[in-house]
Amino acid sequence: MKSPFVHLHLHTEYSLLDGFGRVNDYVQSAKKMGMDAIALTDHGVLFGAIEFYKACQSAGIKPIIGCEVYIAPRGLAQKSGRIDSQASHLILLAESNTGYRNLSKIVSKGYIDGFYYKPRVDHQVLKQYHEGIICLSACISGEIPKAILGGQEDKALALVREYQSIFGEDHFYLEVQDHGLIEEAKVRDALYRFSKQYNVPLAATNDCHYVNQSDYKAHDVLLCIGTGATVDEENRMRYPNDQFYFKSPDEMAALFPDHPEALENTVKIAERCDVTFDMENAHLPQFELPEGFESAGAYLRHLCETGLAKRYDPVTPEIQERMAYELATIHEMGFDNYFLVVWDFIHYAKTHGIPVGPGRGSAAGSLVAYALDITTLDPLKYNLIFERFLNPERVTMPDIDCDFCYERRQEVIDYVIRKYGKDRVAQIITFGTMAARGAVRDVGRVLGMPYSDVDKVAKEIPMRPGQNVTIEEALKENPDLRKMADEDVNVRELLQMSEQIEGLARHASTHAAGVVIADAPLTEYVPLYRNGDAITTQYTMNLLEDLGLIKMDFLGLRTLTVIHDALNNIKQTRGLDIDINQIDMEDPKVYQLIASGDDLGIFQLESRGMMSFMRELNPQHFEDIVAGISLYRPGPMDQIPRYIANKKDPAHITYLTPELKPILDVTYGCMVYQEQVMQIFRDLAGFSMGRSDLVRRAMSKKKSDVMDAEGEVFIHGEKDADGNVTVPGAVAKGIPENVARQIYEEMKDFAKYAFNKSHAAAYAVVAYQTAWLKCYYPAEFMAALMSSVMDNEKKIAQYIDNCKKHRIIIKAPDVNESQYKFSVGFDDQKKAYIRIGFGAIKGLGQHPADEIVKAREKIGAFKTMTDFFERVDLRLVTKKVVLNLILAGGFDFLGYERSQMVMGFPNMINRVADEKRTRLSGQVSLLDMGELDDYKGDRFPSTEPFTKEEKLVHEKEVLGLYVSGHPLEHYTGVLASETNLNASMMDSYEDLVESGIKDGGKVCVGGMVDGVKIQLTKNNDQMAFLSLEDLFGHIEIVVFPRTFNQFRSRLHDGEAVLVRGRINYNEEMNVSIIADQIEKLDQVRRGQQPKNDLNFTIHEEKTRYNKKSAPRGKLVLAFHDYSEKGKLNRIKPLLKASPGDTPVLIQFEREQKKFGASRSLWVTADSDLIKQLKGILGEDKVSIR
């Protein structure tokens, strides 16, 4: 017979990097041991409470919600010195729902008011929120045990009395533990005496930090990860033995044979604890109704009717019917208030000039949202479906995500806080977990394994964007990894240990956009957490929804700011006030721009792969952009060739049954959207839209049982218990059974990847708007674009390069023209140029910039530097600001050398500052007396001008970019021909994959060494980390010892080099290059040979063809740039299949390079081959010359 016992002291993975046990593992272990209850008591937090509660309920075990809180030694207000960092422990358990609410408040108080190294509270806080809480005196780190161990039993006894006074004598227990420690024995002896003498009940616990005794080593590794130590270090934090596991009742009974009451009391405590979470009712904020409206529903209807009349003329019966249906659904689901809350803050943003996006996610399918101006995309025009957003047959919280200008997003959140109360609004927590590669690297470091060995193992774990490939999956997929594990015991141990910690929570952070708004103070429902300045919930987004709390996403979208700034630029430069929501969405010139691949800066379309796809797609209508955004993702990409072929030649389009045509014709016979799947269910088989959405969800989640059952319903229909037909089925609607089955199988396969059309359409609007601006107002648009990335050197370099292609001149900052952001001006020939903004100058923030602009606008342009100093506030425009302005070119209009101004300005600024002080003191200055007529003129000393190289270095230092030239401008030819990678291609893992560069793939980069950091390996060998600057930004280069020793003479600042090596992705998808060979660019340029980097036998065109050897025509295949090299693999078989005497010329337009294919690939250039090649490259990319 098992001894009665309940664990009341237990740490999960949410005791971050200290607790090793996963919530469900503890619960399943408790169930296996026959326990009826179990407590959760993580350090200072309730992160895991709801996950724990749900797991216990599923297992039929009572959950006890608790926390091991930290007690501040001198009160939570004291936060200085070592003493205040040494908080004591205390176990608090929620006895009731009131106790949970109070525990939530205590834990919140610890983070919001008491945080100092740890989230601390004090006795005063405990007195304020003691009701409904049972307290245990904690482990040997508790206040009472500390006093005992310090020989202060009187103090310990006084603390016992104080805790009894705070919580009540029947709510305080002396906690006894036995992990085999000498200190514990001393504490137990004292507590046993206290219990007997003063009738204070005992409670036996084990300080559980992991589930099984065998987890001890993995837990120790986890501690080392948290503290940055290795397992072999002597003086590090460690647990003294392997006894801190989830022990059985029998094991606990064996530890306390003389005090069975200590175990029995744990059961009594468990019986008293009864916390339940309300997961049925929503706690939506109550919108304050204006006079004359009795309900939220009535006011919502009024707003919708008003908005509908503005949106449509006339409002047809069909529109009225759709509106009535949506309003009825919203009301029946209890979300009237929700829509009013969202309408209110969107309305606030728009009436205060804060840019708001056209919509996001499935909400764009709602006519109510469109009428309320929450979204700006007509759901009827684009056949968007309401049930994809709000399904009456599946009651879930609505989810309207909102995009705002990223600079002013916080204003909207602040408005919501003011309206509903600071205590009812918070951001949302999210947890970073240990991914497979990261776990391997962490464990390898902790075990002291050589970095290169660990790196080899980590690299064998595949990386897929948006997916976490586990170690288990990697071992199944990768035979090389299995071989490494089989042959090397160290690798096997590394992978086994890494697999144990993989997926554990590593750190807490703030969700990028999520905000929760409640109908009462949030601590009534959830504990709060402080992450820097942000106050967040301690529960994640999905768990908040379980509790009926509404989550709203307030996203800061940079592109909205770009559009807003571009429109302001247009107004400033041309006097035009453009409403971007009223532009022609079917403008051929705009689609021509998109199809050209000149999509840099265009929302959603500027990745290299997407630009290439747009050239292939050749979009001509808005629906093409919507489809493009939906198709260009893993999974749907397989549909791209068919989609493009059907678009180019509609004769290719076939339908399994004519009923599919009205659903799929907009996407040329291809299934692209989730909404199309839903329409097929409804139109072909008679499903309701709500049920259609449920089946679509089941398909996307691969729920085979649901799919099999619903497949039969789709084909043959369904009747209710009374024999009434509820779903007629496809066969009954005239579709042959075999065709219906084939359609269902295709849907089942496709639905896993189908995209939400509402979301794609809303984002396609933003994409088109940016393309329209770039098409008609390129300078104004590019200025706004660069203003949005002033802190991103790579992006700025990319955009400047794009400006050059558009023949837009970039000018240095100028104190007489620049604004804070990049701005647009016109030269004497009315040609637009972009002026770099003050905000791009390092050390020159918003306030100095505003001061310069204000002074300039007040009187006019500055005539001299002295005039400038006279008119600006020199407390804001400091000497450092002036120096950086000079070096950036801000005073070039004066006609002096920058070196002269650098030498002379300090005396001038001092002289003007003295004059200003003289005036303030009431004295008359020499200037006022008119005795120095030329005083306001500038006098600069004679000095040598800066060299061109010095000017460029200064520009780079203060602007982060070069304006008057580039140190690598002499090497552009060799860089274009030799390299296959540059800094602009390394912004994201996805961009590199799209360029065909995989982890470990060979690459070649070139640039100037701009920083060398040399360090020693564990074997005392020298290695280096280089910062290499190319034409577009910086690239991180890792030089291991062998390569370092071979090429060290070339590793110094300012050296122009070519680096050949291998691409290296880390677990955060950050990219670096491991160098194998380093050459001087000068030497490469002098001895350059024709190069083949195209996976294709080719020769430099100039050496293969000349007027004598090539009298016949050539087949010219034009590629936009090197990023399209992958298409050669598709073209090569076509060329081989049509052998002949026509030479083939490969041309890369951006790089201005031409290559001739080898003789074996010359062709017979007939019409069939030309047609096939045009299908791959585009109509204007294949020609005979």
UniProtKB/TrEMBL annotation:
Annotated ranges, domain Polymerase/histidinol phosphatase N-terminal: 6-73
Enzyme Commission number, as recorded: 2.7.7.7
Gene Ontology biological process terms, A to Z: DNA replication
UniProt-listed Pfam families: DNA_pol3_alpha, DNA_pol3_finger, HHH_6, PHP, tRNA_anti-codon
Keyword Thylakoid: no
UniProt catalytic activity: DNA(n) + a 2'-deoxyribonucleoside 5'-triphosphate = DNA(n+1) + diphosphate
Key words, A-Z: DNA replication, DNA-directed DNA polymerase, Nucleotidyltransferase, Transferase
Protein family (similarity comment): Belongs to the DNA polymerase type-C family. DnaE subfamily.
Matches recorded under PANTHER family: DNA POLYMERASE III SUBUNIT ALPHA
Name listed for the protein in its UniProt record: DNA polymerase III subunit alpha
Species: Pseudoramibacter porci
Organism placement in taxonomy: Bacteria, Bacillati, Bacillota, Clostridia, Eubacteriales
